[in-house]
Amino acid sequence: MTKRSAGTTASPRPGRRRLVIGAAVLAAGLLLFWQRDRLSPRRAPSEDEILAAAPAHSAGSAPGRDQNGPKPRWMPAAGEDGAEESARKIAEKRLERARHTLEGYVQATRYPPGARPLSEKPDLQKPHSVAKNTLPLARPDHKLTDARVTLEQDRMYLVGDEAARLVVSCTTSDGPARCEVLRAEARVPETMPQASTMPPARVAFADEGAGGSAIAALFAPAKEGFGGYHGPIAVNLDLRIEGEEGAAQFNLVYTPAPPARFTGDVREVIENGSLCLYLRLAVDKPGRYVVVGRVDDAEGDGFAYLEHNDPLGAGAQEAKMCIFGKLVLDERAKSPFVLRDVEAYLLKEDTYPDRELVPGRDGPFHTTKAYPESVFSDAEWQSEERDRHIKEFTKNVKEAEGELEAAGGP
After folding, report:
1. Are 274 and 248 contained in the same domain?
2. Structural domains in the chain (count)
3. How far is CA 304 from CA 113, 147, 284, in A?
4. Which residues make beta-bridge pairs with 361?
5. Which stretch of 32-36, 372-376, 396-400 has the lowest confidence by average pLDDT?
6. Which H or E element spans position 25?
7. How many whole angstroms separate alpha carbon 220 and alpha carbon 199?
8. In this structure, is the dihedral angle defined by the CA atoms of residues 70, 75, 80 and 86, taken in order, positive or negative?
9. Would residue 219 count as lying in a domain?
10. What's the rounded Cα separation, in Å, for the pair 393 and 391?
11. 157-159/244-255 β-pairing
């Protein structure tokens, strides 16, 4: 009897070798038959397969074109059942998408970026908007908990002597539950260079009623030792809810000294069928300033969100914000208009925080004169960039129409 050495495989017997080869041939034949059946013209491809097989259209190119003119990008083999119908489906789908893109872009850019319908910005219709946040109580052991906290703050960005109102509501699956504050303090996050030099400050939360299920605090950084600090501030809470202990956190960003101030003066000018408002600022730090405001019509209905985003020099400057004429007419807004809830900041790129806050003006800021409807233009906004995109999307539509025609479509 011959022994096999370790790591060496004995050669199979001749009969076994023939059996292995035969099985391999049979498997190869079955695979070939399956592939042939899967790609057989008797089975027309589904719509999902058609779209998956079609390459994406790249802007600025004309795929599917050769010296003989436009052709569909996916061409089934001649004689396949359903081939012409599949090619038409592809071409029709591409044309539909190209038209949808063109029409959507034209519709979305009929107003300039600095004058948009207020209805487009539901989260910005009021100033200092911060979304309410409900989440489980963060336990130290990371176990699942039945306790939940809802965090509400009336603002995230503060400047100078401003204060933020912070509210915590506690619940369990049984409903409202008492919030017990074990510790509450404000501190500079450890990621900031000033973290080691600025001690934390205690934050006093008081019962808001409702059986102690809601607590609130008014936090003013300037009064709590953060007067010379520019950056993020975390307000950390350790809570007990129905016997469970855990943590929650508010986040704020503080500017100790504003880089500019509004003077309250506004100049009105009708320009190219729009009403432009020039807001006067006293600028201490030159740079790119973002100024936003909301506009109500004579009936008190908000209809416009205005934005200035341009550099301002030092000294007396004006931020231009235009109520676009077509927006006035489309919204059927009647003057006089009220500019309200104005906010502003100095934009600082490539750094954190990315802004220095300017004290805003909550409520009415300026009421315009009354203007007849005839002074406003119904013309859409025009720019070199918009024209370029419309030409490109129109070209894509024409190409898609040519492909559909080449595929035998209408």
Report:
1. no
2. 3
3. 11, 41, 29
4. 342
5. 32-36
6. helix 14-38
7. 15
8. negative
9. yes
10. 6
11. parallel
How confident is the model over 91-103, as a mean pLDDT?
A: 95
Residue reference for tokens 């409903």 = 175
pLDDT on residue 260:
98
Other beta carbons within 10 Å of 344: 26
Asked whether the predicted pLDDT for residue 381 surpasses 60, the reply is yes
User: What is the per-residue pLDDT across 246-270, written as a single tens digit (0 to 9) for each?
Assistant: 999 999 999 999 999 999 999 999 9
393 vs 399: CA distance, rounded Å:
10
- Mean pLDDT (whole number) for 336-365: 96
For residue 190, the enclosing domain spans: 145-255
Judge if 225 and 267 occupy the same domain: no
Integer Cα distance of 286 and 269 in angstroms: 25
| Burial tier of 189 (Cβ tally within 10 Å: 0-12, 13-18, 19+) | middle
Contact call for residues 169 and 150 (beta carbons, < 8 A): yes
Q: Are residues 275 and 233 in the same domain?
A: no
pTM: 0.75
- The first and second tokens of residue 189, run together, are 């996050």
With a cut of 50, say whether residue 74 has pLDDT above it: no
